[in-house]
Amino acid sequence: MTILVIAEHDNLTLKPATLHAVTAAVEIGGDIHVLVVGFGAQGAADAAASVIGVSKVLRAESDGYAHLLAEQLAPVIVGLAPGYSHIVATATCAAKNTLPRVAAMLDVAQISDISAIVSVDTFVRPIYAGNALATVASSDFIKVITVRGASFALAAASGGGAVIETVSAGPTPHSSRFVGQEVSPRTRPELTTAKIVVSGGRGMQSGENFHLLDAIADKLGAAVGASRAAVDAGFAPNDYQVGQTGKIIAPELYIAVGISGAIQHLAGMKDSKVIVAINKDEAAPIFQVADYGLIGDLFNVLPELLSELDN
Amino acid sequence: MKAIVAVKRVVDYNVKVRVKSDGTGVDTTNVKMSMNPFDEIALEEAVRLKEKGIVTEIVAVSLGVPQCQETLRSALAMGADRAILVETVAELQPLANAKLLKAIAGRIEPQLFLLGKQAIDDDCNQTGQMLAALLDWPQGTFASKVTLADGRVEVVREIDGGLETVSLSLPAVVTVDLRLNEPRYASLPNIMKAKKKPLDVLTPEALGVDVTPHLKTLKVAEPPKRQGGIKVGSVAELVDKLKNEAKVI
């Protein structure tokens, strides 16, 4: 049994998402190959070769792969697929975009966002915004899987010694082309891999007030998140959103500030180890999942919290 | 140009679902059902494109049980011109959905397919991508802006860390994200008018599509319950608990 893990990378570096997928692949069991498709992706390929558990890195290079559109990446994976029992990637935007395209080209189902592995063909995945866990068995000859990063630890990024092999790049389809990208500047840890996340909701009242969270996040080395209400109101950028339709995270500590705790938000954070809720509404549903709840006005609580953390 | 919008009937997003005690699934009897929220956004976008004179006809398609007709009537009330139901009581998984939609595309010959990015029941996020693959059309997933011009569609996509813009040649498949638009409410006169709009019923057999599931659900369980927490009286107490009890800071 050989498993193909699809690397997520920016050509120079390997993204942590890849390391969650490798852990899932190790749990499935088998020889693990990592596919790096890109342009000038030597750095990413080297990094993938150092990941413990990986035996081979396949590298496909073409100037057409600079932005990795699904229409370009999918045929490369499909071309390699017959040699593999499983094709695995972490359920990031990129993998969610590409792997269903791969699965349909292979005429197999995709198993989305798995949170546990029962056996080589049986997996657990959350449905209904995480309110139920379905155990599903696949009858397909190749299992195409995306894994929930929050459910699988990071594989060790160094110490491995996989060989790097070049695979031929196919022609690049022209039906789609990359126009541009606008990426939010980031000085804090990535939301999906941060150990601590401080999130704000509608209760923050304005985007300016998010600096109160920023200060606490910086103090704790945390990432900043937001509820959909806060994003919709323009208080925070879209990619801050934690929830069913945003990012699904499971940090050590999640601090929810001015967030009521709608089903869709809980879907994104209820697997956090410790949840703290700060809200002035005693009846807010967030208190039902919070390990520590503090009832109070966030505009009084946050500055006090900041000064308390200083001590 | 013609546009097809795929709409799914799902448990209403406000309903707190219950897992059946025999572990076979989620209890959907006597539960409020409505159009998947992402599909409402897809439909709204199609209607706006029609209002701009870019789209000439909107065909709403739903796949599933006879009650999906209600979802299609809502779609017609929002502005779809006609509707197609592919009726079956069989369990439909994304790959089967994609095959059925491809077969419908063969009959309608649309330039644009609009779908929601995911359904809030199975949370799969697959059908649009699979449909694009089967048709060999380009895909614009997680769209927060859609612009049609010169035989192409430009899609601003929500990606991890920000936004990405891609340009796709038509015909294309676009799946929509939450922030694309604010769907309209159907007015009473439009709801009445929708009753007279055409709604055709087909079957997977008539379309020649095998809908046999590739995945078998063995069990559906409740997620583990979180331990009840405590309320703290002050910020000092909170910080103390986090440091000394939970040991997370």
From TrEMBL, chain A:
GO terms for biological process: fatty acid beta-oxidation using acyl-CoA dehydrogenase. Gene3D superfamilies: HUPs (3.40.50.620), TPP-binding domain (3.40.50.1220). It comes from the Bacteria. One of its GO terms (molecular function) is electron transfer activity. Keywords: Electron transport, FAD, Flavoprotein, Transport. Pfam families: ETF, ETF_alpha. InterPro entries: DHS-like_NAD/FAD-binding_dom (IPR029035), ETF_a/b_N (IPR014730), ETF_a/FixB (IPR001308), ETF_alpha_N (IPR033947), ETF_asu_C (IPR014731), ETF_asu_C_CS (IPR018206), Rossmann-like_a/b/a_fold (IPR014729). The keyword Manganese does not apply. FAD binds at residues 202, 227-228, 241-245, 258-265, 279. Its cofactor is FAD. Residues 3-182 form the Electron transfer flavoprotein alpha/beta-subunit N-terminal domain. Binds 1 FAD per dimer. Heterodimer of an alpha and a beta subunit. Belongs to the ETF alpha-subunit/FixB family. The electron transfer flavoprotein serves as a specific electron acceptor for other dehydrogenases. It transfers the electrons to the main respiratory chain via ETF-ubiquinone oxidoreductase (ETF dehydrogenase). This is Electron transfer flavoprotein subunit alpha. It comes from Methylocella tundrae.
UniProtKB/TrEMBL annotation, chain B:
The keyword Amino-acid biosynthesis does not apply. Its cofactor is AMP. One of its GO terms (biological process) is carboxylic acid catabolic process. Residues 23-211 form the Electron transfer flavoprotein alpha/beta-subunit N-terminal domain. SMART domains: ETF. Coiled coil: none annotated. InterPro entries: ET-Flavoprotein_bsu_CS, ETF_a/b_N, ETF_b, ETF_beta_N, Rossmann-like_a/b/a_fold. CDD domains: ETF_beta (cd01714). Belongs to the ETF beta-subunit/FixA family. Heterodimer of an alpha and a beta subunit. This is Electron transfer flavoprotein subunit beta. It comes from Methylocella tundrae. The lineage of its organism: Bacteria, Pseudomonadati, Pseudomonadota, Alphaproteobacteria, Hyphomicrobiales.
